[in-house]
Amino acid sequence: MIQLITSVDTLIGYSLAYVFLSKQQHGLGKRNELRLLCRNKEGLEPLEKMGGKIIQVNWQDKKQMQDAFSGVNYVVFVPSNTNQCHNDGENVVKISKEQGVKYMTMMSIIGIDRIQQESRHFQYLNEIAELEKCVQQTFDKDHHCIMRTAMMSQIFYYLAPMVENKNTLCFPIEESRKWCTVDLHDLAEAVYQLSVECPQLSENKAMFQFTSTKTMTCEEMAQTMSRGLEQGPIRYNKITRDELRQYLTKMRDDRRFKDKPKGEEEQRRPGPDTSHTFPLGRYLTECAIEVLLEYFEMVNLGKLDFVTKDLEQVLNRQPQDLHGFFKNNRNQFRRLK
């Protein structure tokens, strides 16, 4: 069986590829050929050493894409983080179908089904919503699955320098609005479970929405961060979208986010982060930053104050909550000072 994961040069794509390969290395599941599509090979050597077949492609080059998807049975489609996201994604879906892919899983974002009436404010999220429809129209309900996820808890690493300098957590979000995050380890584990270990779960359900078990205000998140990291009081302050855009653009080139941390890779869950879930500066493309800002606008509109049991049921355990994330990753946050 040949499996393929797209966009392994993004945070989610890299983490999924790492988990799939790590499970194979430890003798879990069948040993399948795993093709890993990327635009940029930089930093992907660890995946290659683990047995992944790195394929650098231009998503708009039909011949390259046909060769990459030839003989593939199963695709995990992670949308690209470029301004060509929509066109790239349509090409992935179309060529997957043409090349005889039997099953497609698409990674998406919670809440995008709730913003149709405010569509003009959500250019990138609407493109992802359109890609969901493309998958649903191209692959019938027994041969596709959409996995929507809340924001990754790992986004807080990017904010660590801001918190360290000002003892302040800043988002462009009204203080009263509630939302949640999910731990990337848990998300990657759930996708693997549904793809390899318990595929019958996804065969019986074409949509999953992965959230934590409770939503919080930004002030509550700041207090949780303070307790989890065992440092002084951290307050919350609302900033503008443009202020956060400028800050994240600076973090793109910040030396603290240039390389993944070296250290022990195998940890029991829940536990400390390992290098494959650490966010790099180069993941913060213009498109990725705008998706974050649009996500926070969904929070402002009250669209993301909900939770589901999907992640808990797939993992067969409680997902790591935000306090656990901060507590288990104190050393990582200290390293970012």
How is the secondary structure organized here?
Layout: E1 2-5, H1 11-25, E2 33-38, H2 45-49, E3 53-56, H3 62-69, E4 74-77, H4 85-98, E5 103-109, H5 123-138, E6 144-149, E7 151-152, H6 155-166, E8 168-171, E9 178-179, E10 181-182, H7 184-197, H8 199-203, E11 207-210, E12 216-217, H9 218-229, E13 235-238, H10 241-252, H11 286-300, H12 310-315, H13 322-328, H14 330-335
Parallel strand pairs: 1-2, 1-4, 2-3, 4-5, 5-6, 6-11, 7-10, 8-13
Antiparallel strand pairs: 9-12
Helix pairs in contact: 1-7, 3-4, 4-5, 9-13, 10-11
Describe the structure.
The protein has helices spanning 11-25, 45-49, 62-69, 85-98, 123-138, 155-166, 184-197, 199-203, 218-229, 241-252, 286-300, 310-315, 322-328, 330-335, and strands at residues 2-5, 33-38, 53-56, 74-77, 103-109, 144-149, 151-152, 168-171, 178-179, 181-182, 207-210, 216-217, 235-238. It is 44% helix and 15% strand. β4 (74-77), α4 (85-98) and β5 (103-109) form a beta-alpha-beta unit. The protein is of the alpha/beta class and 337 residues long. The protein is globular and about 55 Å long. The mean pLDDT is 92. It is built from 14 helices and 13 strands. The chain has a single domain, classed as NAD(P)-binding Rossmann-like Domain (Rossmann fold). It has a 7-stranded parallel β-sheet with strand order 3-2-1-4-5-6-11, with helices on both faces. It has a two-stranded parallel sheet with strand order 7-10.
